[in-house]
Amino acid sequence: MIEISSLSKSYGRHKAVDQISFEVARGEIVGFLGPNGAGKSTTLRMLTGFLPPTSGAGRIAGKDIFRESLEVRKDIGYMPENVPLYTDMRVREYLRFRGALRGLAGGSLRKRLGEVMEICGLTSVRRKMIKTLSKGYRQRVGLADALIHDPDLLILDEPTNGLDPNQIRAIRELIQNLGEKHTILLSTHILSEVEMTCNKVVIIDGGKIKAADTPENLVNSMRRAGRVSIELKAHKNEVEPLIAQFDEVTRVVGESMSNGWNRFTVFAAPKTDTRLKLGQLAQEHHWPIRSLSRKSGTLEEVFVELTRKD
Ligand SMILES: Nc1ncnc2c1ncn2[C@@H]1O[C@H](COP(=O)(O)OP(=O)(O)OP(=O)(O)O)[C@@H](O)[C@H]1O
Ligand SMILES: [Mg+2]
Question: Residue 126: pLDDT above 90?
């Protein structure tokens, strides 16, 4: 659905986006992540034809995003970072105006207006002036606007920015539902949201792609993956060296707990699971165990590892 190769954008001497390449397959929901200033919005604006790239190539649904940008825009619903709404218009009136700009008219426009207002939960506020709506409802108007021409591809730049947890959840569910019919590329800073909704993650930093994979693969490939925690009633000095001698174990950290219990955090090579060995070791030495668990990494840890500046 989206294929971009070596896409770059410079503002003067500053390379905001530096030779990035990635693909989004039809039907995928892809999270586009990166710290502030990473180049997310710049990339999304190039994809949607609002910003000419300095160099590189891109295709959306097989069409060249530069040479056929008007055609490409018909396939895309774009919700920019700051949704530019005419705040003196009423919700339905605004969406009707936007639908007309997209070439809809008469009965089909009316039908589609009803549909998008229903999908985005706007029916009850359709007669309100946009300026009287809360931020969350304005975001919904922006989303309805992006959906009005029923595009195959949705490109959403921080759709949940500035929303409260309830509204974030509502928009997330909306995006999940939309993902059944549409291909979606969305940028966000809310990583738990990405873990819940996205099949794929692209991480950008300093204008360069740092990773592109499924959330599971990213988490499993992390340096800190394979961490296991075990709580034993045994002396730290006795246990630590025995755990440390396993080949895949890189580090053991013991912490004292109450009543003679100790918790050992065992760091091991990526893609390993030391739980079985640790359980057997405890059994052999008759150490009482009260907990043995594998700590899976989080997308947040992956993000920090790939984008931190130290
Ligand atoms: N119109 C512009 N003129 C000059 N520099 C710009 C312009 N727009 C963006 N930049 C710079 O390009 C870089 C990338 O900006 P961009 O807005 O794409 O980041 P972002 O990943 O969307 O960040 P955020 O998470 O803050 O939205 C930044 O260093 C920014 O200062
Ligand atoms: Mg941005």
Answer: yes
